[in-house]
Design goal:
It is a single chain. By secondary structure, the chain is mainly beta. The chain has a single domain, classed as Jelly Rolls (Sandwich). It is 4% helix and 42% strand. Strand 1 and strand 2 form a beta hairpin. The N and C termini lie far apart (39 Å). The relative contact order is 0.24.
């Protein structure tokens, strides 16, 4: 497995070793002993989530407020997504900056997103399944987010406007300037 620390502090790209033969592929998607040396000390995943989406769907940008902030380990098990993590740590020198990573069933990369980031993705393939581990349980009353179309962020989701599929809830999320 290869590890890449990304430009925003705390974000880690994990590139697993893939074993391939005539039957298909095999890889470890999580190994507690190996990951404890990669992830921040004390990270313990307690909830797994999965979403199925079609081309053009944008989910996010979501996060949970303290005291139930979540770190996530994200992967795409079917199809391809453009994964986005936005730094929302108010005391961070990179507040409001984001990274974009393509996660797919071809590359099998995983993105570790620490607490203090909003997360979202767009579906680039016909269908996609996204799975992620969380280190905190979901609490509806602490959910929040940033509008996917925030002009300050100006994210290119790689989806043409006529193909966008965004939930009503996500389209009404506030802009990042509302967090200041």
């Amino acid at each position: 497995m290869k590890i890449e620390k990304l430009s925003l502090k705390g974000l880690i790209l994990i590139i697993p070793e893939i074993f391939e033969d005539g039957r298909g592929i095999f890889l470890e998607t999580y190994h507690q002993d190996k990951y404890k040396n990669i992830l921040p000390k004390g990270t313990k995943f307690i909830q797994d989530n999965m979403s199925f989406s079609i081309y053009g769907v944008i989910r996010g940008l979501h996060y949970q407020r303290a005291p139930y902030s979540q770190a996530k380990l994200v992967r795409c098990t079917l199809g391809s997504i453009l994964d986005i993590a936005v730094d929302i740590r108010s005391n961070s020198p990179t507040f409001g900056q984001y990274i974009k990573i393509t996660l797919s069933d071809d590359n099998q990369h995983q993105l570790f997103i620490p607490k203090g980031f909003a997360h979202g993705f767009s579906v680039l393939s016909e269908k996609a399944i996204v799975e992620y581990k969380c280190d905190e349980f979901y609490h509806k009353e602490y959910e929040s987010g940033i509008n996917y179309n925030d002009p300050y962020l100006s994210i290119d989701w790689k989806i043409t406007p006529d193909k966008l599929i965004v939930s009503e809830k996500d389209s009404k999320l506030p802009f990042i300037c509302d967090m200041l």
